Amino acid sequence: xxxxxxxxxxxxxxxxxxxxxxxxxxxxxxxxxxxxxxxxxxxxxxxxxxxxxxxxxxxxxxxxxxxxxxxxxxxxxxxxxxxxxxxxxxxxxxxxxxxxxxxxxxxxxxxxxxxxxxxxxxxxxxxxxx
Length: 130
What we know:
Layout (H helix, E strand, L loop, with lengths): L18 H18 L4 E3 L9 H4 L5 E4 L2 H11 L2 E5 L5 H7 L5 E4 L2 H13 L3 E4 L2
Parallel strand pairs: 1-2, 2-3, 3-4, 4-5
């Protein structure tokens, strides 16, 4: 199949990113952050093309991870703030997550009570999803 938008030298299938368009969108997000005081973090569930992280981290303050693997990707490749959220955490996941994240959101008071001591000892900020 021929695609008039892609050079025939580009293998198919493949992921293609228009870096100029990506940077334009990142500049818009940076402006929103600056004007609002909000921090915009990259949701790895929606966009985890780590080859773009050197560009993206120039504009966004960090990533949000919904699994240990995403947290490892964020900590290792994005190298900025890492926020974690998942509906539930196993004790083994908490042990792996806490050294990787700056913030963790719990889904219930029960989760917070279960992991409070570990979280505070690790120096990780925490929140409860309402």
